[in-house]
Automatic annotation (TrEMBL):
<dbReference type="InterPro" id="IPR027469">
    <property type="entry name" value="Cation_efflux_TMD_sf"/>
</dbReference>
<feature type="transmembrane region" description="Helical">
    <location>
        <begin position="85"/>
        <end position="102"/>
    </location>
</feature>
<dbReference type="InterPro" id="IPR058533">
    <property type="entry name" value="Cation_efflux_TM"/>
</dbReference>
<keyword id="KW-1133">Transmembrane helix</keyword>
<dbReference type="InterPro" id="IPR040177">
    <property type="entry name" value="SLC30A9"/>
</dbReference>
<feature type="transmembrane region" description="Helical">
    <location>
        <begin position="122"/>
        <end position="142"/>
    </location>
</feature>
<feature type="transmembrane region" description="Helical">
    <location>
        <begin position="204"/>
        <end position="221"/>
    </location>
</feature>
<dbReference type="Pfam" id="PF01545">
    <property type="entry name" value="Cation_efflux"/>
</dbReference>
<feature type="transmembrane region" description="Helical">
    <location>
        <begin position="15"/>
        <end position="35"/>
    </location>
</feature>
<dbReference type="GO" id="GO:0016020">
    <property type="term" value="C:membrane"/>
</dbReference>
<keyword id="KW-0472">Membrane</keyword>
<protein>
    <submittedName>
        <fullName>Cation diffusion facilitator family transporter</fullName>
    </submittedName>
</protein>
<dbReference type="GO" id="GO:0008324">
    <property type="term" value="F:monoatomic cation transmembrane transporter activity"/>
</dbReference>
<dbReference type="GO" id="GO:0006829">
    <property type="term" value="P:zinc ion transport"/>
</dbReference>
<keyword id="KW-0813">Transport</keyword>
<keyword id="KW-0812">Transmembrane</keyword>
<feature type="transmembrane region" description="Helical">
    <location>
        <begin position="172"/>
        <end position="192"/>
    </location>
</feature>
Amino acid sequence: MARETKEDKPGGESTLTVVLALVVNLAIAIMKAIAGLITGSAAMLAEAAHSVADTFTEALLLTALRTSARPADRAHPFGYGKERYFWSLLAAVSIFVSGAVFSFYEGFSAIFGEPVEQESPVVAYVVLALAFALESISWTQAVRQTRRDAKAESRSLFEYLRHSDDPTSKTVLFEDSAALVGLLIAFAGIGLHQLTGSQLADGIASVMIGLLLAAVAYLLSRTNRGLLIGRQADPVLVKAVGMRLRETPEVEAVVDLLTMTTGTDSVLLCARLDFDDKLGAADLERACVRIEADLRSEFAELTEIFLEPVPRNDPDLRAKVLARYGRELHG
C-alpha cells in the first residue's frame, strides 16, 4: 500500500509544473492585456484578468511548496505540511477575487454600458491562438504529472483528483483546464461581436469566464478547507491499516482508529487496540514497538503513529466510537 514518494522538493516535478505554469501565465497575461486594450473587448480583458489571477496562484503555490517542506520543530511537532493547504486556499481566493470578480465587472459593463466599437479583432484572434498553444504546454505537463501520481496510487485520474492530499498539481490542472475553456469562450464572444456588431456576446462571454473561474475557485477552496480542518486519511489507507492491525497476533480487536492528513503523503495515526490479556507489560511494550515498525515499513505515509492499549468493553470509549462511526470497528 506504500505509495511512491512524489518529488515535491525544489527541483521536483511539482515545482517544475508550477514554475512552467507561472512563466506561461505571465507571458499570456501581458499579451491578453495589450490585446484587450487595443480591441476594447470585455472578454479579452476578462481573460487578461484570468491569466493575472493564475500567475498569482502559481506564486502562492511555489510558496506552499517551499514552506511546507520545513522539518518539524518544537513549536510544530507534526511539521509544516498544512502550510501547503493554507497557501493553496489563498490561491483559490486569488482566482476568485482577481479573476472572477473582474470578469463579472467587465461583462456587466459591456452588457449594460455604453456601446464600444470593436477594433482590430485580428489582434485578439492571434493572441488567443498563441495563448491556447502556450496554455496547452502547461496543461500537458500538469496532466502528465497527475496521471503519473494517480498511477503510482493505482487509481483512475478522477479518483486521484477526488482523494489526493496534494493540492499543487490539482490546482494547476484545474486552472489550466479552465484557461483553455476560457480561451474558447473569449474567441466565441469576440467572433460573435464581429459578426453581429453587438457587444452583447462579448459581455456574455466575459460573464461566462467569470462563472468558470468562480466554479474553479469554489472546488479548490472546498478541497483545501477540508484538509486544513483536519481530514481523515485516504479511506483505502485507513482500511489497509485496520486490516493489518487485526491480523497482528497480539491484537484481539481494533477498538478505534483515528487518522488525520497532516501534509502531502503525511498521516498521523492513533490506534486504540484491545491486546491479548495474557501479555505482560514487557510483552506489550515489545509488541507495540514491533507493530509500529511494521506499519512504518509497509505504509510510508504514516509519519506519526500512536498505539494505545484499551479494553474493548469500556463504556465511555465504546460510546465515543459509536457516536463517531455509528458502529464498532472490531468484529
